[in-house]
Amino acid sequence: MIAAPELQTDFHYPQDTDTRFSSDTDFDDPDGRSAVQGKGKVKKGKKAPGEKGKGAGKGAGRLNGHHQENGMENVMLFEVVKLGKSAMQSVVDDWIESYKHDRDTALLDLINFFIQCSGCKGVVSGEMFRHMQNSEIIRKMTEEFDEDSGDYPLTMAGPQWKKFKSSFCEFIGVLVRQCQYSIIYDEYMMDTVISLLTGLSDSQVRAFRHTSTLAAMKLMTALVNVALNLSINMDNTQRQYEAERNKMIGKRANDRLELLLQKRKELQENQDEIENMMNAIFKGVFVHRYRDAIAEIRAICIEEIGVWMKMYSDAFLNDSYLKYVGWTLHDKQGEVRLKCLTALQGLYYNRELNAKLELFTSRFKDRIVSMTLDKEYDVAVQAIKLLTLVLHSSDEVLTAEDCESVYHLVYSAHRPVAVAAGEFLFKKLFSHRDIEDDSMPKRRGRQSLNANLIKTTVFFFLESELHEHAAYLVDSMWDCASELLKDWECMISLLLDEPLPGEEALTDRQETALIEIMLCTIRQAAECHPPVGRGTGKRVLTAKEKKTQLDDRTRMTELFAVALPPLLAKYSVDAEKVTNLLQLPQFFDLEIYTTGRLEKHLESLLRQIREIVEKHTDTDVLEACSKTYHALCSEEFTIFNRVDIARSQLLDELVDKFNRLLEDFLQEGEDPDEDDAYQVLSTLKRITAFHNAHDLSKWDLFTSNYKLLNTGIENGDMPEQIVIHALQCTHYVILWHLAKVSEGSCKKYYNDYGDIIKETMSKTRQIDKIQCAKTLILSLQQLFNEMLSDLGPGFDRSSSAFCGIKELARRFSLTFGLDQLKTREAIAMLHKDGIEFAFKEPNPQGEGYPPLNLAFLDILSEFSSKLMRQDKRTVHMYLERFMTFQMALQREDCWLPLISYRNSLQAGGDDDTMSVVSGISSRGSTIRNKKPKPVTGKRKLSEGTTSLTIVWLNRDQSMQTPVMMPSPHLTSTVMRDTKRLRPEDSYMGVYTMPPEQQQPQPPPQHHAPPQTPQPHHHQTPLDYNRRGSGLMEDDEEPIVEDVMMSSEGRIEDLNEGMDFDTMDIDLPASKNRRERSELKPDFFDPASIMDESVRTTHFLGYDAFQR
Hints:
By secondary structure, this protein is mostly helical. The protein is 55% helix and 1% strand. It has a 3-stranded antiparallel sheet with strand order 1-2-3, with no helix packed on it. Helix 6 packs parallel to helix 8. It is elongated, with a radius of gyration of 38 Å. It starts with 61 loop residues before the first strand and ends in a 116-residue tail after the last helix.
């Protein structure tokens, strides 16, 4: 393994050097004669500790541009950074200038800056600074902390605090950058700042701990950058020295060699000091806070260590540091796991670093693979993206089983997860494709390079055994493989052209799958939105997307206007293939038939449709023909007359044939011939299918069907299917007549009626918003019940009836306006009633089947956008009370309304926990993961939130299921007596590693002998081995929990083969600067990152799917 070498000395800041003052008289040494020379000597060009600038001896007045009053300076640095209007470099330069005048006063300003940034109202005075140790100062500041509010600048909301964090971090980075050549080496400023931040980071007060940890981590990042620059300078100096020394003696410049040696020595001393500073921060802050009880603090630590490893890989990218990221992959909170994955992505993206990640990859690969099923969607997406980067490094790292666990996610209902999985699938399946030679003529059709890739896509689709989800597969791969999926010319060639010599032809099943995929790609290109169940609906397209959409529609029309007739001719007897092919004209740009002079192909298409109508009696095929005629018969296009004539001729023949057959059939009396009955039924089926989409009133079908039904009533021996289709045809006749009547009435009374309804709704809303909302949801429920009684529980959610109710719900939601605060309670009550209605009627077939009204959640999702962010979480918790264990595990189509509704509650939420495959794990964490904020200036809103939550959660407890029980909140925002904290009430019980994962630990160091107080020294020496009290376990393992959807398998022993000793930071030996230049991504030998014990010989091809 890769071990970090030990430093020969510990980082210990001197106590009795020139940086300490025993009395106020030390300030009167203008020449710095009392300065002690040696290791702690002041560097050349710096002022001695007691040296003052002009005006330093004055009393009250202005110092450093700030007003002084009673010896205490108003903390203005915090205000400047908070406003964020000044250039940060000028702010830092002003502080440096004041530090050069009087560094104690400037340092006091900086200390108060950190105290103020933590939200503390107290101020450290000069007297406290000189005579109190850090622990005493922090205790004093804790007493002055405002306990009425748990908010502090890093967590406050509002415009003025929006950019505070970025300004705060920028200030620290610029401060170190501007001081990197002198001040940070004076063993005074950095000594004080690091000691203060280390003490604050161990505080029981969350605000102190959070703010100081962020500051310390950003300080460490800035120091890492300084160390990297020093290393580069040492490389340059060493190279110059070697070049000079290798010259001939006569040409060698000894003075230059002396200077280079002196420079190298100085750089080495500086680097040693930077190492000590980084060791102090790493051991004093990071090793304690990366396991903090607060998730935000843990996330900060993991994010920054990722930056260090990426920025200075020679020093930090080894297993001694990677282990912290590996352990934290098991963190209980999604935001921390997310930071781990993003940190690793930055490392795996650079392929030249993969050799250093070899052991880590072999140890934690299985964990990363399992995180693709994380209950947090964002975590699952980033886990898949990380595996895609791992895939780039070598095909041998991930086994076929690992890959298959990602493949099935292309069918996930959550689009970001599916898209990430689609990119992984595309990289894996098509990473070995040949590169086409630009000098050779481009091959088209089945001879093109895409032909095999399209076949591979078909094979994958068939092997996945989810045939009805072709639209999901296409949508998943659309962003990364649209060029392949839009190669319709190749698809047409694979279907129509004869196989090449030696090429295996597609089977009938493969041709069916290819046609289905081809239809889905055309629909996606024409509509530019995901399929039903993914996304919240249509979005506004950009100008570029609109242009792409128009170009795609033009190209698909030009191709399929020519190719569709021969395709229909070839597969005319295959009902499934014909049904899919007949949907293609719905997405055409029909004007191209005229502008492209393709009228003869239109005639050919109409002939083929006519022949298909005559050949088939299957309802799906006939309805597809009817819809195609409906799409082509648009009066806005010049082809309308041509298509209308063809349609009329076909219907004339069908109606004449039906009337003729009906007359003979009725004359046969009580003993009709079976062949005659079949002819009547088949003709009636064709007419009924057309009457669904076309107004056939001029053919007077009512009279014929009335005769047929009347005869059946009189004789009582009419075949059942004939009666059914006759009734259906008569139903369409009546509907078309009613539509005409309604259209006339609407035109006449629409304006008056609409005004009355709008005014009525407005008045009712003014009278009682909640009752108005209840009325709206009740009307939607009544319409839904009527639809269920008409269509039955197995209705199609794409039916016009259901879509009409959804559209009405959308319009209702618009009436609530944009002010969510005013309509908050009404919208919440509307969701409450809607959820109760959806689960009101259980399915008589058992719990494994969806409730009869579950589809109502699809309608209810139209109102989700009107919920406030915090209310979405409450509604989601309320929804889960109605869900059983089995419901949460279901992913079939019939459960999509529940999935979609949960997705709509997640969108814009702040910490919803949803599952990629199963939402069950979110229940235990939805409440537990939230930490309540104490009441702040936003008290009104907070009280509203609390009351609303109580109303929802105090509902009849009989509705709760065992898996929905909430866990208590735990906080750490005020001082707490650790002795009174019971083990079962502390974070330790939640986050402790399993017993088999824990390593023997050294004895706790809490009871070390107390140090002798030093009242005259304001700075306490750093003890970076000191552990936190009351916030941490005594070991160094992370806060973990198994957060996967499946509890199968235990977390493996994370500690085997890893170095558990906290190491000293030791920067690597000098290298040539060229080796430190920015690494460019490049492919390399995959065998270099995996040893034989973990290397796999699986190569993915068609055989990989034969499982």
